[in-house]
Amino acid sequence: MTKLALWLALVPWAIAQTTPNFTGVWELNPAKSHPTRPDANMRIKIDQQGPDFGVTFRNVERGETQEESLKFAAGQESKNQMHGAPMTSHTEWDGATLVVRSVAVFSGKELRLNNRWSLSPDGNTLTFVERHQFGDSPEEEDTHVLDRRPGNSWEPSAPPKLAEEVYKNIQIMKGVPAPRLRLVMTNLTTWLGVRCDHCHVVNEFEKDDKPAKETARKMFKMVRTINQDNFPGTGPVTCWTCHRGQAKPQSLPPQQL
Question: What is the pTM for the complete model shown?
Answer without folding.
Answer: 0.68
